[in-house]
Amino acid sequence: EDFLTLIFKAMMKDALNSSHPVSSAVQSSEQIEEMFDTLSYIKGASLLMMLKHYLTKDVFQAGIEDYLHNHNYRTAQSDDLWDSMNEITNGTLDVKKMMKTWIVHKGFPLVTVVRKGKIISVQQEKFLYRVEPENWTSDASYLWHIPLTYITNRCNFTHCTNAYLLDQKSGT
């Protein structure tokens, strides 16, 4: 419950146009300090949980172990973690490409789902809680690679969860 409360607080900050990406190039020591705030840590943890759910616990665990083994007692960059995940998925999913969309964009997407009979349409757009005119920038080009999971009436949550990667503005 406490973690969910933290996630929702972080999402409220991230839903403002004055938010910042989890990862970005820095030019000054002030920018370095800004990167290590609650938003970055909580959003980062949420993104790792999302990735774990999408890849499955075993695949995610193997990727973490590969990353820790390959960078034991050495420095690492964020791409190194995604590269380890790519190795474990054997190229079936470009984890680096997917996760980059989450860590280099500020904010998060709003996914609209419309059902017409057996056809499900999904569309993404950047979610803004409140537009702050002094900080407003156009984010119309933002595109996230969103892992969606779903079940049908033939399944239940434990036996056959299906996955779909929304990597366009809309999909069916």
UniProtKB/TrEMBL annotation:
Keyword set, alphabetical order: Aminopeptidase, Hydrolase, Protease
Any one biological process term the GO annotation gives: regulation of blood pressure
InterPro entries named in the record: Peptidase_M1_aminopeptidases (IPR050344), Peptidase_M1_dom (IPR014782), Peptidase_M4/M1_CTD_sf (IPR027268)
SUPFAM superfamilies attached to this UniProt entry: Metalloproteases ('zincins'), catalytic domain
GO-annotated molecular function: metalloaminopeptidase activity; peptide binding; zinc ion binding
Listed GO CC annotations: cytoplasm; extracellular space; plasma membrane
Protein name: LCAP aminopeptidase
